[in-house]
Design brief:
- The structure holds two protein chains of two kinds.
- In chain A, helix 1 crosses helix 3.
- Chain A is an alpha/beta fold.
- In chain A, the strands form two sheets. Chain A has a six-stranded parallel beta sheet, sandwiched between helices. In chain A, strands 5-6 form a two-stranded antiparallel ribbon.
- Helix content of chain A is 47%, strand content 9%.
- By secondary structure, chain B is an alpha/beta fold.
- Chain B is built from 13 helices and 14 strands.
- In chain B, the strands form three sheets. Chain B has a seven-stranded mixed beta sheet, with helices on both faces. In chain B, strands 9-11-10-13-14 form a five-stranded mixed beta sheet, sandwiched between helices. In chain B, strands 1-8 form a two-stranded antiparallel ribbon.
- Chain B is globular, with a radius of gyration of 20 Å.
- The termini of chain B are far apart.
- In chain B, 56% of the residues are buried.
- Classes of the chains: A alpha/beta, B alpha/beta.
- The complex binds thiamine diphosphate.
- Thiamine diphosphate sits at the interface of chains A and B.
């Protein structure tokens, strides 16, 4: 069985932009043309953010960037389903989710520029800062969900991770806890088919979504390049979680069109034909085709979306290149929440050390 | 002799070990087609096949645990941990299983496992990509821990590590991968033990002990100090567990002064171990308390500030001045 095989995949918009219908229609009945157009706009904007950030990396303004190209629908569709009081625990590629949560655009680039260990205040946008350790965040989401239950609240914790991450013990332990405590959690796996150079077949021999039922968690496979379908399945999972139905596992079938990060060269391991196949399933093009069919893809619409994307990209670039440089002594900040005598001593010694350069400078100055 | 980079030298050493012993297998994430994120295993899967160079699922505990299972059947697995910070998911398998199996089974089970870890900072990476976790492992009995600093040692020691019947953590200073050097591929592996420290440059005033990424920096410091009239003897430990104290001891008896430098945080680090051990052994020879020049007791900082955390030439020289009792940054305190 090919783990990427597309059986039983929820789809509401075909790659050529035709609207299909099925049992998931009821979850998106309220989504009118305006709503669809705004989903489209978000996808175009985040693709533009991604391109701009990639360019910033090439220009030396960012140290690294993990592109999301191709995964816009999986991220926008799921993130737009959330309420503000839901909480997201993602990995490092979920820029579109962060955008939908309302992240400040400068904050989005802060970590990747090397100016901070975390870009934003998690409680400001109800989204934890990016996780680099593969899969670790899934446990945090489950714990957050357990706390929601204790509080008698109806918020939901949502965790994003990749197909590679499903091999980690943490992700499997997260599922054990989620099921045992019936935690209101959505496991949102973006199966983008590659973990750096490793194809999904190295992580799983059956569709990844089939693992969850073994833990007692209902699961669904969705066309991750179909923004309407990802919105629908996420809404269903949110409803289940809010009404005491516990966790849901969503596997969104999508594709990483670009490199793993700006430091990676996918031509070393990936067949160009595969990329072509997936380009034909592009999440943005299919919605454009749908609009075109219905006469909604007007020049006005296109130019307003483009203008928005340009504005966002300009704002992000300006925020990035004008970011204040960190202060040296910041390295000692926030290691502990209250003073620590060991560290205070090291900080004092380092300040004295740095001061010797002032003296040298002053000496040099004086002897001129 | 041929000239090659540090990274190439490890590749050549792995190749030689695989040619010499069909039981040597490589495991790790992205090590096959891609040749690893640092290309250290480049070309090996093509030449030795997928059964000997195995791309592993993305699971470090899984990699380590299954390597133990292979060792039970007589294999000599060499696993690659992609970056230092990703060794922690495998920590339990390493310290509770790999390290203790020989002891627990009264010597019946051997774990000839080599764990390759690209470690240390200085390459501008995001968090978890620049850690120096060696002290966790030197604190665990049953593990051998080495760190090489130049292409020749990289080539020689990787083969010695693989040949060892004990588990060996082999720490590769990733920021030196592109450094070139002469490598004698015909080196006699039994001529020198990987446990022996190396006196890199001789000196008479101060012993400067280091390993891995800071060896070249220490050498630069020795040159700069000699311009200042201080003769520094630089020792590259190579083996961090066990430490070749005899070599360090002989040097300190000669110089009377000890400076230790490493990238890892200070508290509970190897510098503390070396300072204490040498103080025990050479108390009456010491003319100044051992001095440590290390990373701070902080999580590895974001890249814009990492060069404050990492000991550099000037910080090491300041440490040398302290050991010499010359004017230094802490003079006002010592007043
Ligand atoms: C514990 C751990 N091991 C290894 C890595 C190195 N690494 C970073 S991303 C990655 C691949 C992740 O693949 P996947 O989970 O499918 O997510 P994707 O990058 O495709 O979004 C690897 C191996 C890491 N960050 N953390």
């Amino acid at each position: 069985m090919n783990p990427a095989q597309e059986d039983d995949v929820v789809q509401l918009l075909t790659p050529s932009g035709a609207r299909t219908s099925g049992e998931y229609d009821r979850w998106v009945e309220d989504v009118d043309d305006n709503e669809l157009m705004s989903l489209y706009q978000d996808m175009v904007v985040v693709r533009r953010i991604d391109a701009e950030a990639t360019a910033l990396q090439r220009q030396g303004e960012l140290a690294l960037w993990p592109p999301l190209l191709g995964q816009e629908a999986a991220q926008v569709g799921s993130a737009r389903a959330l309420r503000t009081d839901d909480f997201v625990f993602s990995s490092y590629r979920e820029h579109a989710v962060a955008y939908c949560r309302g992240v400040d655009l400068t904050d989005m680039t802060r970590v990747w520029r090397g100016n901070a260990s975390s870009g934003w205040d998690p409680f400001g946008i109800n989204m934890a800062t990016p996780q680099v350790i593969i899969g670790a965040q899934t446990l945090h989401a489950v714990g957050y969900g357990m706390a929601i239950v204790n509080d008698g609240d109806d918020a939901v914790a949502v965790t994003y991770f990749g197909d590679g991450a499903t091999s980690q013990g943490d992700v499997n332990e997260a599922m054990v806890f989620a099921a045992s405590y019936q935690a209101p959690v959505i496991f949102f796996c973006q199966n983008n088919h590659w973990a750096i150079s490793e194809p999904v077949g190295l992580q799983a021999q059956v569709p990844i979504a089939r693992r969850a039922p073994g833990f007692g968690i209902p699961s669904v496979r969705v066309d991750g390049n179909d923004v309407l379908a990802t919105l629908a399945v996420t809404r269903e999972a949110l409803h289940r979680a809010r009404t005491g139905g516990g966790p849901t596992y969503i596997e969104a079938l999508t594709y990483r069109m670009g490199p793993h990060t700006t430091a990676d060269d996918p031509t070393k391991y990936r067949d160009a034909n595969e990329l072509e196949d997936w380009a034909a399933k592009d999440p943005i093009a299919r919605l454009a085709a749908y609009f075109q069919e219905r006469g909604l893809y007007t020049e006005d619409f296109q130019s307003s979306v483009k203008a928005k994307a340009d504005d966002v990209a300009r704002e992000m670039r300006a925020g990035c290149v004008n970011m204040a440089e960190p202060e040296t002594m910041d390295v000692f900040k926030n290691v502990y929440s209250s003073p620590n005598s060991w560290l205070e001593r090291q900080q004092d010694h380092y300040a004295r050390y740095l001061a010797t350069f002032d003296d040298t400078a002053a000496d040099a100055e004086g002897s001129k | 002799m041929s000239s090659m980079t540090f990274g190439r030298a490890i590749n050549a050493g792995l190749r030689k070990a695989m040619e010499n012993d069909p039981k040597v297998v490589l495991m790790g994430e992205d090590i096959g087609k891609l040749g690893g994120v640092f290309r250290i295993t480049e070309g090996l899967q093509k030449d030795f096949g997928e059964h000997r160079v195995m791309d592993s699922p993305l699971a470090e505990a899984g990699i380590m645990g299954t390597a133990i299972g292979m060792a039970y059947r007589g294999y000599r697995p060499v696993v690659e941990i992609q970056f230092d910070g990703f060794i922690y998911p495998a920590f339990d398998q390493i310290v509770c299983q790999v390290a203790k199996l020989h002891y627990r089974t009264q010597g019946k089970v051997k774990v000839p496992l080599t764990i390759r870890v690209p470690f240390g900072g200085g390459i501008g990476s995001p968090e978890h990509h620049s850690e120096s976790p060696e002290a966790y492992f030197t604190h665990t009995s049953g593990l051998r821990v080495v760190s090489v600093s130049n292409p020749q040692d990289a080539y020689t020691v990787i083969q010695q590590a693989i040949a060892s019947d004990d588990p060996v953590l082999y720490f590769e200073p990733k920021r030196r991968y592109h450094v070139k050097g002469e490598v004698n591929e015909g080196v006699d592996l039994s001529a020198e033990s990987m446990e022996s420290a190396r006196v890199v440059t001789e000196g008479s005033d101060v012993t400067l002990v280091t390993y891995g990424p800071l060896v070249p920096t220490a050498l630069d410091a020795a040159v700069a100090a000699s311009d200042d009239g201080v003769s520094v003897e630089v020792i590259d430990l190579r083996s961090l567990a066990p430490i070749d104290f005899a070599t360090v001891e002989a040097s300190v008896r000669k110089t009377g002064r000890l400076v230790i430098t490493h990238e890892a945080a200070q508290s509970g680090g190897l510098g503390a171990e070396i300072a204490a051990s040498i103080t025990e052994r050479c108390f009456y020879y010491l003319e100044h308390a051992p001095v440590r020049v290390t990373g701070f007791d902080i999580p590895y900082p974001y890249s814009k500030l990492e060069f404050h955390h990492l000991p550099d030439l000037d910080r090491i020289l300041d440490g040398v001045d302290r050991a010499m009792g010359r004017a230094n940054s802490l003079s006002s305190l010592e007043g």
